[in-house]
Amino acid sequence: MKILVMGPPGAGKGSQSSKIVEKYKMPSISTGQMFRDAFNANESIGIEAMKFIKEGDLVSDDITNEIVRLRLTKKDAETNFLLDGYPRTVTQAVALDDLLEEMDTKLDAVINILSSHDVLFERMEQRRVCKVCGASYHLRFKKPVVDKVCDKCSGELYQRQDDTHESVKRRLEIYETKTKPLLDYYSKQGILYNVNGMQSFDAVYEDIILVLDEI
Ligand code: ADP
Ligand code: ADP
Ligand code: ZN
C-alpha cells in the first residue's frame, strides 16, 4: 500500500500517521520530520531548511524532492510507504508522480484530514514534540505522563520554532494558496478521501482505517 496523508498544518497528520504505520507495518516518511532531524543533528541541509521552516515558509521544491527521492528509493519503501506532509505543491506532486512512474508504481490513496483554522491554531500553539523520536503531544488533549518527557522514549519535549502564532498564520496562508490545489489534482486521479479531523484521535483514526481497509 502506498499512501499520502495530507491536510493543513496541525490537522493531525503526524499523530495519525504513527498509528497507521504501526498497524500496516510500513515506513512513515515525513519531510518535516526529516528536516527537523537533520537540524537537530547539525547537518547542513537541516540548518538551511530551518531558515525557511521557522518563518513558516516552505523549503524549496528542489531540496524537498531530492530528499524524498533518496528516501523512497531505499529498499524498505519498495512495497509500502506512507508519505506525511509531502507533496505540498503541484510541482512536488508532479515530481512524485514522475518518480513513481520510474519505479513502475503509483499511489493507492490520498487521505486528506480536514479541520477549521480555529482548531488548527489551538492545536499548534499547544503542541509539544519529542526531540528524540518526534512524537507529538498536546498540553490538554494528549498530555505526557511525566511533564516535558516523552512517554515513548523518555526524550525531552520542546515547542517547535514554527509553532508561534505568526508562523502558524503564515503556514495556513501558504497551505491555502500552494497546497490546497493538490486536492483537485488527486481528486481528478480518483484517489482522494476526505476525513473529518475535528473529532477525537480515535474517531479520526477509525475513519481512516475504514478507507484503507477498502482499497
Ligand atoms: P500535523 O502533523 O498535521 O501538523 P500533529 O499530529 O502534530 O499534526 O497534531 C497537531 C497537534 O494537535 C498536536 O499537539 C496533537 O497532539 C494534537 N491533535 C492531533 N489530532 C488531534 C485530535 N483528533 N484531537 C485533539 N488534538 C489533536
Ligand atoms: P506541519 O504539518 O505542522 O506544518 P511538518 O512537519 O509537516 O508540519 O512541516 C514543517 C515545516 O517543514 C513546513 O512548514 C515547511 O517549512 C517544511 N516542510 C515540510 N514538508 C515540506 C514540503 N513537502 N515542502 C516544503 N517544505 C516542507
Ligand atoms: Zn520520544
In terms of topology, how is this protein built?
Blueprint: E1 2-6, H1 13-24, E2 28-30, H2 31-40, H3 44-53, H4 61-72, E3 81-84, H5 90-102, E4 109-114, H6 117-125, E5 127-130, E6 136-138, E7 157-158, H7 165-179, H8 181-188, E8 192-196, H9 201-214
Parallel strand pairs: 1-3, 1-4, 2-3, 4-8
Antiparallel strand pairs: 5-6, 5-7
This protein binds adenosine-5'-diphosphate (2 copies) and zinc ion.
Report on this model:
This protein has 215 residues and is an alpha/beta fold. The protein contains nine helices and eight strands. The protein has a five-stranded parallel sheet with strand order 2-3-1-4-8, sandwiched between helices. It has a three-stranded antiparallel sheet with strand order 6-5-7. Strand 5 and strand 6 form a beta hairpin. Helix 1 (13-24) crosses helix 9 (201-214), helix 2 packs across helix 3 and helix 6 crosses helix 7 (165-179). The model has no long low-confidence stretch (mean pLDDT 96). The structure holds adenosine-5'-diphosphate (ADP) (2 copies) and zinc ion. Zinc ion is lined by residues 130, 132-133, 135, 150, 152-153, 155.
